[in-house]
TrEMBL record:
Residue span(s) of domain Glycosyl hydrolase family 13 catalytic: 125-498
GO terms, biological process: amino acid transport; carbohydrate metabolic process
Protein name: Solute carrier family 3 member 1
Keywords attached to this entry: Glycoprotein, Membrane, Transmembrane, Transmembrane helix
Top-level lineage group: Eukaryota
One Pfam family it belongs to: Alpha-amylase
Species this protein is from: Phyllostomus discolor
TM segment ranges: 88-110
Length: 502
């Protein structure tokens, strides 16, 4: 409407002989006085009215000015000098945004990520039976550990690592487990364990526990069902025919137990031999049976649901054995076969680190990952590889795109019998050079089945070794008592305690 009115006013002014200024003519071009009345141009009869639309403005003598109408603005914006400037500025902005994005991605990619809880502080390993005794019955217990949490906190410990406390026999550091989902009565009750977990978390600490999937006690319900060939439990353990006459067993092959002598034991109920890599009271589970793997994963989930923050998986290199029963090679080929009774006298190519073993360990990792989705609730996984070569130990870190253990426990410093600088240097550099890129190291000073620092190296080296592992890159792991230079205590009844491996 306003535009039509403007047109009408313009026409009207022309008909009256008036001059108009639509913004296209400079002010000085407008005459202050009327033209000569006698001029033919001013005569009404010479007025010409355009009927073809508004006349095109002349831009030749116009300069840009504030408030110019869009027709004028478009005219100038189409000029090369303005168009080129706009394009240059546009591409500069695009390039700046892309450069900033690339720089941000590069910084995120190359910068080290924030340390996870299992990387951020020391681990404190506790063998509960010889730790604090809260009820004066001669055995350390879970309440005793809870009573000492304030002391542990003063050591700047971030993770408490408790070794086996499951219902079990007194053999082999309580690794002959009778029930994976029960607390041994000498340590307390499940309620005591739940209270301990809550207390540990209340103090900002984490808890990892031992788990021994390779074998059970011969008192375990699975074994009792298996020896009677009951349903699916028939093949839960490794059984083979063997001859047994006059109390003498002839095993299927020459495979040996870690503690010496044959790893086969005759069972009179099933009338077959079962395989055990440790004591005869600890039959090996058959991990080639999918049902066994499923049972173990359910146990892992059980303890994760109780609030456990991670596991140390023990003896995993023994999970699988060769399907065949060929004899293992002797270290000394000239030795009489019947005299080969010690574990170190054979090469264990058929009974350790078999193809498929790492797949099973990775499946444990996958089970734990199902409980690691909540922020701050990542579940740690460590593996024990005692006795392995360093190259074999590194395999537990997993593959570049397939995670296994967060780290295999590094006990190589505990194998040093002398504190020589060359030996320490070689041990440390060997680990760091062999460790896969991007993985995290760790350093142990002791453990329940190892000689303590004081007894192994001498009191004068306790603080030196403690300082060393706490200054090396990675997670330091100390066995309780090492911080005060505790030494080994001579056991008076090995048959009862079995707390020392001979």
């Amino acid at each position: 409407m306003a535009e039509k009115k403007s047109k009408r006013d313009s026409i009207g002014m022309r008909m009256k002989g008036c001059h108009t200024n639509n913004g296209f003519v400079q002010n000085e071009d407008i005459l202050e006085k009327d033209l000569d009345p006698g001029s033919p141009a001013d005569s009404p009869q010479h007025i010409i009215m355009g009927v073809g639309g508004p006349e095109e403005p002349d831009f030749k003598n116009i300069q840009p000015y504030a408030g110019m109408p869009k027709e004028v603005l478009f005219h100038f914006s189409r000029q090369a000098r303005y168009r080129v400037l706009r394009e240059v500025l546009f591409w500069l902005i695009v390039a700046s945004v892309l450069a900033l994005t690339a720089a941000t991605i590069a910084i995120i990619a190359i910068s080290p990520k924030c340390l996870d809880w299992w990387q951020a502080g020391p681990m404190y390993q506790i063998y509960p039976r010889s730790f604090k005794d809260s009820n004066k019955d001669g055995n350390g217990d879970l309440k005793g550990i809870q009573d000492k949490l304030d002391y542990i906190k003063t050591l700047n410990i971030k993770t408490v690592w408790i070794t086996s406390f499951y219902k079990s026999s007194l053999k082999d550091f309580r690794h002959g487990i009778e029930d994976f989902q029960e607390i041994d009565p000498i340590f307390g009750t499940m309620k005591d364990f739940e209270n301990l977990v809550a207390a540990i978390h209340d103090k900002g600490l984490k808890l990892i526990i031992d788990f021994i999937p390779n074998h059970t006690s011969d008192k375990h319900a699975w074994f009792q069902l298996s020896r009677n060939r009951t349903g699916k439990y028939t093949d839960y353990y490794i059984w083979h025919n063997c001859s047994h006459e006059n109390g003498i067993t002839t095993p299927p092959n020459n495979w040996l137990s870690v503690y010496g002598n044959s790893s086969w034991h005759f069972d009179e109920v099933r009338n077959q031999c079962y395989f055990h890599q440790f004591t005869k009271e600890q039959p090996d589970l058959n991990f080639r049976n999918p049902d066994v793997q499923g049972e173990i994963k359910e146990i892992i989930q059980f303890w994760l649901a109780k609030g456990v923050d991670g596991f140390s998986f023990e003896a995993v290199k023994f999970l699988l054995e060769a399907k065949h029963l060929r004899d293992e090679a002797q270290v000394k080929k000239t030795q009489i076969p019947d005299t080969v009774t010690q574990y170190s006298e054979l090469y264990h190519d058929f009974t350790t680190t078999q193809v498929g073993m790492h797949d099973i360990v990775r499946s444990f990792r996958q089970t734990m990952d199902q409980h690691s989705t909540e922020p701050g609730r990542y579940r740690f996984m460590g593996t024990e590889a005692h006795g392995d070569s360093m190259d074999s130990t590194m395999m537990y870190y997993g593959l570049p795109f397939i995670q296994e253990a967060d780290f295999p426990f590094n006990d190589y410093l505990t194998r040093l019998d002398s504190p020589s600088g060359d030996g320490v240097f070689e041990t440390i550099t060997s680990w760091m050079e062999r460790m896969p890129e991007g993985k995290w190291p760790n350093w142990m000073t002791g453990g329940p089945d190892r000689v303590r620092l004081t007894s192994r190296l001498g009191k004068e080296y306790v603080n030196v070794m403690n300082m060393l592992v706490f200054t090396l890159p990675g997670t330091p792991i100390t066995y309780y008592g090492e911080e005060i230079g505790m030494g080994n205590i001579l056991a008076t009844n090995l048959n009862e305690s079995y707390d020392v491996v001979s």
